[in-house]
Amino acid sequence: MAKAKTLFKLKLSAEAPQRGSALILSCHLCPETSAVAMEIRWFKGTECICLYKHGQVTEGSGYKDRVSLFTWELERGIVSLKLKQSRSSDAGIYLCQVISGDKAEEVTARVWWRKYSKLHPA
């Protein structure tokens, strides 16, 4: 897919809890733009773990009942991912990709566990 000049950007921040609690990768469109009609893809590495398309959310295999979007917030451009019951294997690179027609934007973050959880832009 060829990337056209975008009319929005993605901004990423996160809450970094301890393992076992929910991990929220907060991501929103800038300027605030409704994402209801857009396609939203969240990847861990190369695996799509959560897909929002045509109003439906599909969870990736191995993430059933663990990942979700805040669909009621899409109107405000919030495309954040919630990963429930975080575990050591959740460490890695995450990518949020938002597609609107022929326009696409993406942002990545690295999650890793130490004594305290951390999240940094990749």
Automatic annotation (TrEMBL):
SUPFAM superfamilies: Immunoglobulin (SSF48726)
Subcellular location(s) per record: Membrane
One GO cellular component term: external side of plasma membrane
Pfam family, one: V-set
Record carries keyword Membrane: yes
GO biological processes: regulation of cytokine production; regulation of leukocyte cell-cell adhesion; regulation of T cell activation; T cell receptor signaling pathway
A GO term, aspect molecular function: signaling receptor binding
Domain Ig-like positions: 20-108
Keywords, alphabetical: Disulfide bond, Glycoprotein, Immunoglobulin domain, Membrane, Signal
Protein name: Ig-like domain-containing protein
Annotated organism of origin: Electrophorus electricus (Electric eel)
Lineage: Eukaryota, Metazoa, Chordata, Craniata, Vertebrata
